[in-house]
Specification:
This protein is α+β, with helices and mostly antiparallel strands. Helices cover about 40% and strands about 25% of the residues. It has 13 helices and 30 strands. The strands form six sheets. A seven-stranded antiparallel beta sheet has the order 4-3-2-1-30-29-28, with no helix packed on it. A five-stranded antiparallel beta sheet has the order 9-15-16-17-18, with no helix packed on it. Strands 10-11-12-13-14 form a five-stranded antiparallel beta sheet, with no helix packed on it. The radius of gyration is 43 Å and the shape is elongated. The two termini are about 75 Å apart.
Amino acid sequence: QGEQLKEKTTALNTARAAEFGSTDMEVLARTRIRTENNCRGRAIVQVGEMLLFGYNVFIGLKKTTRIDDVFALYRLSQDNDAYSMEPQTLDGSFLSDQRFQHDFDELYRYYKETRLTQLVKKDGRLLAGFQIGERIDDIRVFRWSISDDATELTYIDNRGERDIEMPEPYDFEWQEVDRDDIVHGRFPHISLNDEVFIETINGDLTIKIEDNTEDGEGVYTEPVEDATQSLDDAEIEFALVGDLILIKVLPYKEKKWRHLVFNRRSQDVVRIDEIGSSCVQLPEDHGVIFPGGYYLESGDYKTFPIGIEGLKFKRKFRSPIGEDVLYVFYEPVDGLFTLLSYNIIEKSLQNPIVTNGYALADDGRVVVFNAEPEPTRMHPMQIWKTPYVHEEFAATTSAAQGFYSNIGNSELVRGVSDLYSLCRMIGDETVSVRSYEKLRKTALRLFDDHFWISDKETGDIGATVRSINETVELIIDEFEKVESIRRQSAEAIKEAKGQHRQIITTSDASGWRRVEDYVGALDRIRKQRGHLATIREYRYIDAEAIDTMDSELVDLNERIGDDTAAFLADEKSLASYVDEIENLQSEVGTLETVAAVEPKLKKLEEIVEGLDLLSELIATLRIDDATVQTRIVSSISDVYSKMNQTRAIYKRHRDELGSAESVEQFAAQLKLFSQSVVSSLGLATTPERCDEQLSRLL
């Protein structure tokens, strides 16, 4: 059913792409910008049809810094497949505004260490940020308003510091744990939302998914630097993001936070420290994205070795067709950007573009550059084709009228993404009630979120989804039975391993002095092997573990068998049996009740069982000397004879005591009955009471 759904979804997506088009990211060309002075490029931005390039240059002997020492305008021109950057004059442009020139001159006059840090388009404004002090937040920001058609820019002022502030690095809230979250016990730990449990004591950081301080199932562990820390020495915070629980931990005396992702669906934990600098949610509850990669709720994740610290989320762009989202992360000290393009349908992330600046045009083309390590006049640029077209530009393209156009590309993208998500969930090998419940809810939600899913134009995807939902409901009904069998098998193998360890640790023949020790050990081994053969038939049992234990028991049985043969070679090996039987014979005359005889008979039966087992073992023991084997068999026969004699004496004595006790018991019962008859006669004063007493006696 999953393969059938995937085929139909692929056909739907192909038809959607044919109707609306689908733009992949690719490099169109490489070109260069030439500046008048040697400089380090810092930022670039698209302003209408112009590219504003900003840089920092060391002027040397010049006493003043002019606007063209910091800014340059270019126009991107195309001739077939060839691209070039044509310089434009600043005269008559928005940079020639008198008020801006005055503020610019004043800035460089009073702050000698002034340098350009950012060029940003935000909320219909162009912002130019300059660092004027040693700290990164010592800035001055010039502002221009951009007309609706982006053809005119009007200078506003130099007080745009608030406009250029970075957004929060996280779009969710971290929650701190407190003493109320501590679960006490032999192995105390901290509860995170009563779903996952964590501790950093006893030398390691451990995460469990069961609130059991004794033997709760641990799903993740790693060492900590200080093994002596107590439970509340570590700093722990967590955040709930869809099916994910993000955890940040700072163990005692450590300087670096550890960041972990717990997946509620797969019950897995992954350490991803890149989350520490910044992390935001992906659309449609797909998961989270961070500067070095992404983690999906399905459990898939990917990281890229960017090698840049301090990147923070800055902004995101969504393509008008709704299929792709571009996430921009920014490192303000060196002015580095990381561009991460996420595809909603494929749930994939393209390789990041690391750059010193980018300029996004309305037609989706992006110009990026990487600053050279040394100041230079030539600055290489890359021109990328992307799907991040401006909405107004996309609206000017003509669209055909039909089924897909009536629904809309964005809606179709969401639907195709959800259908592919359902396919991935079906292909997931994780087996749990939660995963099947999630699968069922996802299948049902498709009909609520996408009204068109049952339309014939889609290839009747709705019918396939309904059949999947019916199958999932059948699985959920049967799943509890399967889980019950799994638990039974798990408990059986756990119990068998415990018994196995006990047998192995208690089977040291070096201290044994009685034949019962050898016989008892061999009997336990035999019973344990029989038990292993029984539980081996359980479904979902760990057959490999059973084979390993059985092999160890076979080796142990041979070793103890050899020790038993060596012990029985001694003429006095059965003395313990003989002594015990003789003691029982001497006690028989002192026993005056049947109740006192029974335990002694039971003891004799235990001796019989031991002798029977010993008799069976004789045939399997490796005894090379026939004389020794004959003597052992003869000795066992003598013990059998003495034991049978003693048992006969005990049974006869029990019968005698039982007969006397029966006579006394009958006499006592008859006496009680006689007295009851006399009492009843005294009470039978009427015919009715006479019948009543007669019935009671009978």
